[in-house]
Protein backbone atom coordinates (compact mmCIF):
# COMPACT_ATOMS: atom_id res chain seq x y z
CA UNK A 1 0.00 0.00 0.00
CA UNK A 2 1.54 3.29 -1.15
CA UNK A 3 0.89 6.80 0.12
CA UNK A 4 0.95 9.30 -2.74
CA UNK A 5 1.54 12.71 -1.12
CA UNK A 6 1.71 14.55 2.16
CA UNK A 7 3.77 13.84 5.24
CA UNK A 8 3.82 10.09 4.50
CA UNK A 9 4.11 10.55 0.73
CA UNK A 10 5.99 7.86 -1.18
CA UNK A 11 6.03 5.53 1.84
CA UNK A 12 4.86 1.96 1.45
CA UNK A 13 3.15 -0.20 4.04
CA UNK A 14 2.86 -3.97 3.76
CA UNK A 15 -0.66 -5.38 3.88
CA UNK A 16 -0.99 -8.99 5.08
CA UNK A 17 -1.39 -11.44 2.21
CA UNK A 18 -4.33 -13.02 4.06
CA UNK A 19 -6.45 -9.88 3.55
CA UNK A 20 -9.61 -10.37 1.56
CA UNK A 21 -9.81 -6.83 0.21
CA UNK A 22 -9.80 -5.02 -3.10
CA UNK A 23 -7.93 -1.79 -2.36
CA UNK A 24 -8.36 1.21 -4.65
CA UNK A 25 -5.65 0.99 -7.31
CA UNK A 26 -2.74 3.43 -7.09
CA UNK A 27 -3.67 4.80 -10.52
CA UNK A 28 -7.28 5.49 -9.52
CA UNK A 29 -6.32 6.83 -6.08
CA UNK A 30 -3.73 9.20 -7.53
CA UNK A 31 -6.21 10.56 -10.09
CA UNK A 32 -8.94 10.92 -7.47
CA UNK A 33 -6.66 12.85 -5.12
CA UNK A 34 -5.47 15.07 -7.99
CA UNK A 35 -9.12 16.11 -8.48
CA UNK A 36 -9.68 16.54 -4.75
CA UNK A 37 -6.50 18.60 -4.31
CA UNK A 38 -7.92 21.13 -6.76
CA UNK A 39 -11.14 21.37 -4.73
CA UNK A 40 -9.97 21.08 -1.13
CA UNK A 41 -7.31 22.21 1.21
CA UNK A 42 -7.21 19.06 3.32
CA UNK A 43 -5.74 20.88 6.33
CA UNK A 44 -8.30 20.84 9.11
CA UNK A 45 -10.96 18.80 7.28
CA UNK A 46 -12.83 15.94 8.91
CA UNK A 47 -13.22 12.78 6.83
CA UNK A 48 -14.66 9.30 7.11
CA UNK A 49 -13.66 6.21 5.14
CA UNK A 50 -16.55 3.72 5.03
CA UNK A 51 -15.61 0.08 4.29
CA UNK A 52 -12.03 1.11 5.08
CA UNK A 53 -10.42 -2.24 4.19
CA UNK A 54 -6.66 -1.67 4.32
CA UNK A 55 -7.06 1.96 5.42
CA UNK A 56 -5.37 3.22 2.25
CA UNK A 57 -7.78 6.12 1.63
CA UNK A 58 -7.85 7.11 5.32
CA UNK A 59 -4.04 7.04 5.43
CA UNK A 60 -3.86 9.29 2.37
CA UNK A 61 -6.27 11.72 4.06
CA UNK A 62 -4.18 11.76 7.26
CA UNK A 63 -1.01 12.22 5.21
CA UNK A 64 -2.52 15.23 3.44
CA UNK A 65 -3.44 16.98 6.69
CA UNK A 66 -7.03 16.13 7.62
CA UNK A 67 -7.42 16.92 11.31
CA UNK A 68 -9.93 14.15 11.97
CA UNK A 69 -10.19 10.87 10.05
CA UNK A 70 -12.49 7.99 10.94
CA UNK A 71 -12.24 4.49 9.47
CA UNK A 72 -15.23 2.14 9.56
CA UNK A 73 -14.31 -1.50 9.01
CA UNK A 74 -16.24 -4.52 10.25
CA UNK A 75 -13.62 -7.22 9.61
CA UNK A 76 -11.61 -7.72 12.79
CA UNK A 77 -8.29 -8.47 11.05
CA UNK A 78 -8.58 -5.35 8.88
CA UNK A 79 -9.61 -3.09 11.78
CA UNK A 80 -6.66 -4.43 13.82
CA UNK A 81 -4.29 -3.70 10.92
CA UNK A 82 -5.58 -0.11 10.73
CA UNK A 83 -5.27 0.29 14.53
CA UNK A 84 -1.66 -0.92 14.37
CA UNK A 85 -0.95 1.48 11.52
CA UNK A 86 -2.42 4.38 13.51
CA UNK A 87 -0.26 3.44 16.50
CA UNK A 88 2.87 2.91 14.36
CA UNK A 89 2.46 6.40 12.86
CA UNK A 90 1.53 7.95 16.22
CA UNK A 91 -1.69 9.35 14.70
CA UNK A 92 -4.04 8.49 17.60
CA UNK A 93 -5.01 12.16 17.98
CA UNK A 94 -6.46 12.49 14.50
CA UNK A 95 -7.27 8.99 13.19
CA UNK A 96 -9.59 6.44 14.75
CA UNK A 97 -11.16 3.19 13.64
CA UNK A 98 -14.49 1.65 14.54
CA UNK A 99 -14.89 -2.08 14.08
CA UNK A 100 -18.53 -2.16 13.02
CA UNK A 101 -20.88 -2.62 10.09
CA UNK A 102 -21.23 0.55 7.98
CA UNK A 103 -25.04 0.40 7.88
CA UNK A 104 -25.21 -0.04 11.65
CA UNK A 105 -22.81 2.88 12.08
CA UNK A 106 -24.92 5.09 9.80
CA UNK A 107 -28.09 4.20 11.68
CA UNK A 108 -26.61 4.74 15.15
CA UNK A 109 -24.71 7.92 14.36
CA UNK A 110 -27.34 9.98 12.58
CA UNK A 111 -26.27 13.61 12.91
CA UNK A 112 -23.85 12.85 15.78
CA UNK A 113 -20.86 13.95 13.75
CA UNK A 114 -20.76 15.52 10.31
CA UNK A 115 -17.83 15.11 7.94
CA UNK A 116 -16.47 17.39 5.23
CA UNK A 117 -15.51 14.38 3.14
CA UNK A 118 -17.14 10.94 3.05
CA UNK A 119 -15.59 8.11 1.03
CA UNK A 120 -17.08 4.65 0.57
CA UNK A 121 -15.44 1.71 -1.19
CA UNK A 122 -17.85 -1.15 -0.45
CA UNK A 123 -17.34 -4.70 -1.65
CA UNK A 124 -18.48 -4.70 -5.27
CA UNK A 125 -20.78 -7.65 -4.52
CA UNK A 126 -22.59 -5.74 -1.74
CA UNK A 127 -26.33 -6.30 -2.21
CA UNK A 128 -27.15 -2.84 -0.81
CA UNK A 129 -24.73 -1.02 -3.13
CA UNK A 130 -27.50 0.63 -5.14
CA UNK A 131 -29.09 2.03 -1.96
CA UNK A 132 -25.80 3.10 -0.36
CA UNK A 133 -25.75 6.73 -1.62
CA UNK A 134 -29.23 7.38 -0.27
CA UNK A 135 -28.44 5.70 3.06
CA UNK A 136 -25.24 7.73 3.48
CA UNK A 137 -26.84 11.02 2.48
CA UNK A 138 -29.95 10.46 4.61
CA UNK A 139 -27.79 9.59 7.64
CA UNK A 140 -26.80 13.25 7.79
CA UNK A 141 -23.08 12.50 8.28
CA UNK A 142 -22.13 14.73 5.35
CA UNK A 143 -21.47 18.36 6.28
CA UNK A 144 -23.50 21.02 4.48
CA UNK A 145 -20.82 21.79 1.87
CA UNK A 146 -19.28 18.33 2.06
CA UNK A 147 -18.50 15.82 -0.66
CA UNK A 148 -19.40 12.13 -0.73
CA UNK A 149 -17.55 9.85 -3.14
CA UNK A 150 -18.61 6.28 -3.84
CA UNK A 151 -16.25 3.82 -5.51
CA UNK A 152 -18.16 1.20 -7.48
CA UNK A 153 -18.02 -1.17 -10.46
CA UNK A 154 -18.83 0.12 -13.94
CA UNK A 155 -22.19 -1.67 -14.15
CA UNK A 156 -23.71 0.80 -11.66
CA UNK A 157 -24.84 4.28 -12.63
CA UNK A 158 -25.95 6.92 -10.16
CA UNK A 159 -26.48 9.77 -12.64
CA UNK A 160 -30.21 9.87 -11.84
CA UNK A 161 -29.65 10.28 -8.10
CA UNK A 162 -30.92 13.72 -6.99
CA UNK A 163 -27.57 14.59 -5.36
CA UNK A 164 -25.36 13.30 -8.18
CA UNK A 165 -22.55 15.69 -9.10
CA UNK A 166 -20.18 13.83 -11.42
CA UNK A 167 -18.75 10.47 -12.43
CA UNK A 168 -15.12 9.54 -13.12
CA UNK A 169 -13.72 6.24 -14.38
CA UNK A 170 -10.12 5.04 -14.17
CA UNK A 171 -9.81 1.61 -15.74
CA UNK A 172 -12.24 -0.65 -13.91
CA UNK A 173 -12.54 1.77 -10.97
CA UNK A 174 -15.48 4.18 -10.98
CA UNK A 175 -16.07 7.11 -8.66
CA UNK A 176 -19.37 8.92 -8.33
CA UNK A 177 -19.46 12.27 -6.53
CA UNK A 178 -22.47 13.44 -4.54
CA UNK A 179 -23.17 16.73 -2.75
TrEMBL record:
Q: Which InterPro entries match?
A: DNA_methylase_N6_adenine_CS, RNA_MeTrfase_RsmD, SAM-dependent_MTases_sf
Cross-referenced Pfam families: Cons_hypoth95 (PF03602)
Tell me one GO molecular function of this protein.
Answer: nucleic acid binding
- Look up keyword S-adenosyl-L-methionine and say if it applies: no
CDD domains assigned to the protein according to its UniProt record, in alphabetical order: AdoMet_MTases
Biological-process GO terms, alphabetical: rRNA methylation
Q: Which UniProt keywords apply?
A: Methyltransferase, Transferase
Give the top-rank taxon of the lineage listed in the UniProt record for this protein. Answer: Bacteria
Record PANTHER family: METHYLTRANSFERASE
Its recorded name reads RsmD family RNA methyltransferase
Amino acid sequence: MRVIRGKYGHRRFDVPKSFNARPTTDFAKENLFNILSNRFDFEGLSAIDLFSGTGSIALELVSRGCSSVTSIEKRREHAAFIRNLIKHLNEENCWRVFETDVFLFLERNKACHRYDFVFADPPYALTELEQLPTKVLESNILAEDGLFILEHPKDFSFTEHPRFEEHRAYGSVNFTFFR
